[in-house]
Amino acid sequence: LYVSIDGVLYTKDLTNLVAFPIDSTMKSYSILEGTVYIDEEVFADSQNVETVYFPSTIKEVREGAFSFISIKEVFFNDGLESIDDSAFTYYDNNNSRHYIDVTFHVSPDQLDKYKQKFSTFSNITFIGDYVPHVYDKKIIEKKYLKLSATCTEPAVYYFSCECGKTGLETFEYS
Q: Is 115 left (phi over 0), alpha (psi -120 to 50) or beta?
């Protein structure tokens, strides 16, 4: 079973990102927190996407996930365990494989780890300039509302990051 969120297809439990709309005009996309796998060819041929933000829960980028696109940058927290060797590739008219040059922005304390772990990827440049999201802000605004208050129950809101991104954990507000 699947669910579409803003036109992007995930498994119902949100652990797998399954498909990104090929005709999307989005230049950047933040994958939902809780997503563990970026499935095969998810972003294939999505020519407008240049920047993707991985949540801390991403573990695996599968075959051809970012093939034939104009991606330039990926921002991610610690947690990524594997990248398929064809994840960032394209094939020319002679069926020769080429690698897409992409910059991975990681937290400074994880830079050496990822440079070593993915040293075989000559097309990926790692830069230690990304500060991960911390979802510790209690902001009472409509965009963070999960459940409205009722006569008997308080409203429930999502914690957020100081940048404005919404987390998964909630808090009650009366």
A: alpha
Q: Give CA angle at 139 (138, 142), nearest 5°.
A: 135
Name the burial class of residue 38, with classes exposed (0-12), middle (13-18) and buried (19+) by CB atoms within 10 angstroms of its CB.
buried
Report whether 61 contacts 35 (CB < 8 A). no
* Cα 48 to Cα 132: distance, rounded to the nearest angstrom: 25
Taking alpha carbons only, the member of 41, 44, 35 closest to residue 16 is 35
Count of CB atoms within 10 A of residue 87's CB?
A: 25
Radius of gyration for the alpha carbons in the chain, expressed in angstroms and rounded:
18
What element of type H or E holds 28?
Answer: strand 28-30
Residue 51's nearest CA partner among 34, 33, 78, 30 is 30
For position 166, what pLDDT does the model report? 86
Helix (H, G, I), strand (E, B) or coil at 127: strand
Strand 73-75 with 51-53, pairing? parallel
Tens-digit pLDDT profile for residues 114-166 = 888 888 888 899 998 887 677 889 999 999 999 999 999 999 999 998 778 88
List residues bridging with 28 in a β-sheet. 51
Residue 5 is inside which H or E element, if any?
Answer: strand 2-5
